[in-house]
Fold this sequence. Notes:
Layout: E1 2-11, E2 16-25, E3 28-34, E4 42-50, E5 52-57, E6 59-60, E7 63-64, H1 71-82, E8 86-94, H2 98-113, E9 121-125, H3 147-153, E10 160-165, H4 172-180, E11 184-187, H5 194-202, E12 207-208, H6 224-231, E13 236-239, H7 248-258, E14 263-265, E15 279-282, E16 285-290, E17 293-295, H8 308-318, H9 323-330, H10 332-338, E18 355-358, E19 364-369, E20 372-376
Parallel strand pairs: 1-4, 5-8, 8-9, 9-10, 10-11, 11-12, 12-13, 13-14
Antiparallel strand pairs: 1-2, 2-3, 4-18, 6-7, 15-16, 16-17, 18-19, 19-20
Helix pairs in contact: 5-6, 8-9
Amino acid sequence: xxxxxxxxxxxxGSEFRQQQCIEVVDGQVTALFDGSASQAEYCVxxxxxxxxIDVQVNGGGGVLFNNQPSLASLTTMSxxxxxxxxxxxxxxxxxxxxPTMSAAADAMAEAIANKLKGVCGxxxxxxxxxxxxxxxxxxxxxxxxxxxxxxxxxRQDLGKVIVTxxxxxxxxxxxxxxxxxxxxxxxxxSNANAEQVELALHAGATGFTHLYNAMSPLTGREAGMVxxxxxxxxxxxxxxxxxxxxxxxxxKLAIKCKGxxxxxxxxxxxxxxxxxxxTETFLGMEITRKGDKLTIEGGTLAGSALDMASAxxxxxxxxxxxxxxxxxxxxxxxxKFLGLEHKFGCIKPGYAADWLSLDTNLQxxxxxxxxxxxxxx
Length: 377
């Protein structure tokens, strides 16, 4: 089926264009050219931009993936985040017992088999992490990696798979084996020294989970995980720009060091996003929302109430990052990290017709996946 859209202005992934017609056949862009509204079936309000890609989403729409690892939960989460412009996400499982991990994998396999809109794989954040940097990850489930988990991570029916691990607790040989089998290894929740981090990168790790948070800091005598993450030119870093997890100056430093082609905006969203929910219980911990901040008793941050559209606004308005770079960090950069840069992250021929329109305040007007509207404000 052929559709033609007209956008007064759009960002194609690298530059802004005016008065553009976009032809879409079977959910894929086939042509992009100068034109007018009279040539199109659909006219788009506002600025048309590539769909946002979020590689760290614990929940949404009142559902926490750990608590309800099912296809129904993935559907609810995806639909909740589509209202904020996310057209592709990796539902994320926080450290948990093996039965929950297995159930989450089965749910994702079902979602992939059913071509569920808005999901492209799964992110296992743990359980092979560092106790001193565990954050809210339950201590009783943090453990060494076994053949059982290796077999789970390397299943071929899960779409893209990210595993976040602490390199002081997983050997470079194991990291190398995971990478050879197609797993994207991220480093995080770790107290590793610089040498351990460098060995993990040499073994094939390509990312860092929520830069600065729950990782060994940069100091004068020891670069730590933060220092190596900022120094390494090829590694990607997730950054939570909610003004709670990372200071504005530290966010600016990361973007200055890494550039918009290596910093990915992520939400680390919990079930509260896209819902009226104020509290959620996770393995005996009560996660409470106050304003736009989530904490457990004692004040420890517990994921975020951030959505991707807010992350974009915070980055552009508060950090004063140019809009083109901000949009790349929300879309094309995570697509590159996932190895999907030839399918997502641009509005150009050959790419999926996944996009959203933004008003002048960068609020989401509408969201499309494969050329079909999935949300309208």
